């Protein structure tokens, strides 16, 4: 969750949705293609703020009155109550939760009992779909065998560990607090508790060789996780890394190096039985059923609905988007006075919606429905011309395109931004 909030219109204090969005939800349900509803809970606390991170996170010394970790579970639960009332008051049909995701920050810096308490209130308010995916992010050094067992008993089904690297000097550059040997222990405890396991990796760190990256991917594979996310390091403005790069203290990322590491990732994970389903995500898929794909993230990529709780959290229902006050103290203060924690709201226009659909669709193995491009101002005529060219250049899968889906090839995954620009003519 990026720390900088977008521009937008003021959000209403009552938090209710416009009638147009409510009608879209009702129409989808009536047509038999009901929109799924998920919950995201942002926990903004970290022991150390990593130099590359631009998420809305805080260490203890960053926080002022009203932003205590000890009171946080109660504050977020208050937002869940507010959300249920706002949705009901808007006339949105009751929906059970498709997925729940606790992100951060480091959610597991809160006691497991607090996370279970928040989850329990969500269950009381909305209920869960059968087999709902319920995930928390965690650092390998922020869990114990006992805490993971408590999370599993409290309803969590999945844990996503921030492994990032298996190489000590890379972890040091990233300012990660765990040692590589923490990861196997944490994964083992999660397995004992019956939790699915995902591992997050980052490639392209300054000083990381291709051999270092191979070590990290092979170490992740050896742990037999259900899911792996591998993200290229992005140097964001306003971060410690960004300042170091601008001063020449560390080199900027090298796109060619990152491409080589991505190709190695695909090679190693593919050989181990993982299948890519989004440019940066692979699921163990020996049977071809896709059962270990991250359903919560798929809900985002497929433009479904979710309520985001916590400071700076973003929400979306049927094309309407809003976001909460960024600082934990300001967020808590708004809820304490009975006002929506949201400080901005927008309804993207048709052009913005089309851009988003194309950007997300061409990142997925299921691809983009080519008919979406008919919404372009010229009815998709120029985009159809580009499709043929992109197939000829080896960036889009020709067989999938004949079936009406635009799916990037391996080379296309490296150039997905270029695919979007060409399809939309900019």
UniProtKB/TrEMBL annotation:
Where, subcellularly, is it found? Answer: Cytoplasm
Q: List keywords of the entry alphabetically.
A: 4Fe-4S, Chaperone, Cytoplasm, Heme, Iron, Iron-sulfur, Metal-binding, S-adenosyl-L-methionine
Bilayer-spanning residue ranges: none
Instruction: Tell whether Nuclease is among the UniProt keywords.
Output: no
GO BP term (any one): porphyrin-containing compound biosynthetic process
Q: Can you list the GO cellular component terms from the UniProt entry?
A: cytoplasm
* Domain Radical SAM core: residue ranges: 31-275
Principal location listed in the UniProt entry? cytoplasm
- InterPro entries, alphabetized: Aldolase_TIM, Coproporphyrinogen-III_oxidase, Elp3/MiaA/NifB-like_rSAM, HemW-like, rSAM, rSAM_sf
Which CDD domains does the record associate with it? Radical_SAM (cd01335)
Provide a Gene Ontology MF annotation, just one: 4 iron, 4 sulfur cluster binding
Checking Pfam families in the record gives: Radical_SAM
Coiled coil location: none
Q: What family is this protein classified in?
A: Belongs to the anaerobic coproporphyrinogen-III oxidase family. HemW subfamily.
What PANTHER family does the record point to? COPROPORPHYRINIGEN III OXIDASE, RADICAL S-ADENOSYL METHIONINE DOMAIN-CONTAINING PROTEIN 1, MITOCHONDRIAL
Function of the molecule: Probably acts as a heme chaperone, transferring heme to an unknown acceptor. Binds one molecule of heme per monomer, possibly covalently. Binds 1 [4Fe-4S] cluster. The cluster is coordinated with 3 cysteines and an exchangeable S-adenosyl-L-methionine.
Task: Tell me what this protein is called.
Answer: Heme chaperone HemW
């Amino acid at each position: 969750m990026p720390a900088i909030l977008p521009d937008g219109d003021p959000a209403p204090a009552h938090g209710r949705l416009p009638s147009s969005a409510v009608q879209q939800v009702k129409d989808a349900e009536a047509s038999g293609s009901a929109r799924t509803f998920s919950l995201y809970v942002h926990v903004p606390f970290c022991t150390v703020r990593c130099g590359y991170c631009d998420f809305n996170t805080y260490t203890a010394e960053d926080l002022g009155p009203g932003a205590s970790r000890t009171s946080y579970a109660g504050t977020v639960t208050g937002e869940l109550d507010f959300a249920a009332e706002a949705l009901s008051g808007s006339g949105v049909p009751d929906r059970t939760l498709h997925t729940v995701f606790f992100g951060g920050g480091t959610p597991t810096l809160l006691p497991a009992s607090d996370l279970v308490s928040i989850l329990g209130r969500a269950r009381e308010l909305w209920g869960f779909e059968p087999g709902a995916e319920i995930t928390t992010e965690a650092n390998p050094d922020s869990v114990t065998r006992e805490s993971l067992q408590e999370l599993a008993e409290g309803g969590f089904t999945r844990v996503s560990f921030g492994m990032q690297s298996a190489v000590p000097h890379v972890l040091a550059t990233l300012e990660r607090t765990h040692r590589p040997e923490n990861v196997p222990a944490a994964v083992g405890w999660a397995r004992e508790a019956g939790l699915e396991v995902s591992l997050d990796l980052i490639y392209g760190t300054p000083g990381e060789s291709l051999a270092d990256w191979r070590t990290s991917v092979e170490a992740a594979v050896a742990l037999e996780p259900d899911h792996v996310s591998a993200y290229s390091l992005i140097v964001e403005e306003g971060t410690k890394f960004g300042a170091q790069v601008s001063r020449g203290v560390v080199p900027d990322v090298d796109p060619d190096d990152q491409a080589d590491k991505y190709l190695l990732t695909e090679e190693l994970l593919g050989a181990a039985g993982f299948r890519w389903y989004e440019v940066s995500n692979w699921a163990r898929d020996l049977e071809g059923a896709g059962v270990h794909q991250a359903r919560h993230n798929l809900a985002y990529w497929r433009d479904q609905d979710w309520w985001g709780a916590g400071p700076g959290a973003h929400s979306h229902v049927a094309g309407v988007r809003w976001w909460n006050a960024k600082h934990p103290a300001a967020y808590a203060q708004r809820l304490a006075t009975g006002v929506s924690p949201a400080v901005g709201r927008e309804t993207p226009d048709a052009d913005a919606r089309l851009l988003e659909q194309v950007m997300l669709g061409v990142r997925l193995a299921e691809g983009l429905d080519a008919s979406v491009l008919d919404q372009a101002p010229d009815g998709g005529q120029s985009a159809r011309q580009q499709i043929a060219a992109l197939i000829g250049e080896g960036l889009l899968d020709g067989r999938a395109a004949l079936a009406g889906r635009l799916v990037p090839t391996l080379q296309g995954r490296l150039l997905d931004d270029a695919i979007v620009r060409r399809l939309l003519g900019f």
